[in-house]
Amino acid sequence: MIETLAIDGILPSFLLYRLPFTNAPALAMSAFTIGSLVIYGSAGANLTVLSGLFAFTFLFTLLLFPISSLILSYNRPHLARTPRPSLLLVFFTLALSVTLIVGNSVLAPKTIGYFATYSIVTLAGFWALSRKSSALKLVWWILDSGKRTRRLAKKAAGVMVALRGGPVVIFVETDEINRLFERLLYVRSNEETACVKLVHCYRTIADIPSELEANYKILDEAFPSITIDLIFVEGEFSPSMVNVVADRLGVASQLCFIGCLGPNFPHTIGEFPGVRIIDV
After folding, report:
1. pLDDT digits (tens, 9 = 90+) for 261-273
2. To 5 degrees, how large is the angle CA 169–CA 254–CA 234?
3. Taking every pair of C-alpha atoms in the chain, what is the biggest distance, in angstroms?
């Protein structure tokens, strides 16, 4: 789990370090071990509390499945996926999970307190790590207010610039400026980047939307804080094409965005590992 979070950019990338001979993720395993020892110690080495924490973790993980299914069905109604559970089954699973959580909370109110505390601390940490630039901006503001710490403030500013230097790739299939605008708004609000590359795959020159280049220039003027590039790639849009483009641009698949795949698209979202859907 820690390695996956590091790949997705939520945790620091140094956790991906692997030992040269065994190829084991040593730092990720060490971080998990330290976290487990912290929980064990803060719970007073009480096995009853720890077993209760495990039970709540399992139940809340189960609860995420029906919630995720509902959100996916509402926000991405046209996304082709199998299996597609019925709403009746989803709501039944949701009600069952909530009932089990409430029942365990009544039986072990002390344990749910521990679980809530650990969850709040963990989520707050993940939120801070996902907003590194905002946290560094606060650090820069504090350091820049003092004469003796302004040198450190310059270093913090350099780190902020480096964090926003990595590009994000958006695969576009249309020249509709409202859809392109919404995708760029999403990236500006949720990604720490100052460089966006719009990629359009085409079979023939005639397939290129006529207004795409003109609208790209408008968007480049509308977002002065973001450097926007338009790239045309000859070939059919497919999972292999996404991998090739990401590799050539030096961008991780987690920083590649695509539109919602329709029911007639020959590939499923499972064939795009790590790639994120940015709109309906």
Report:
1. 777 777 777 788 8
2. 40
3. 69
**pLDDT at residue 162 tops 70:** no
Quick one: pLDDT at residue 113? 87
User: How many other β-carbons are positioned within 10 Å of the β-carbon of residue 199?
Assistant: 22
Q: What's the predicted TM-score (pTM) here?
A: 0.72
Task: Quickly count: other Cβ atoms within 10 Å of residue 71's Cβ.
Answer: 10
Pairing label, strands 227-234, 256-258: unpaired
Residues 262, 263, 265: CA angle, nearest 5 degrees: 65
Strand order across the 195-202 sheet = 227-234, 195-202, 167-171, 256-258, 276-277
Q: pLDDT for 38-74, tens place per residue?
A: 888 888 888 888 888 889 999 999 999 999 889 888 8
- Sign of the C-alpha dihedral computed for residues 65, 190, 187 and 237 taken in this order: negative
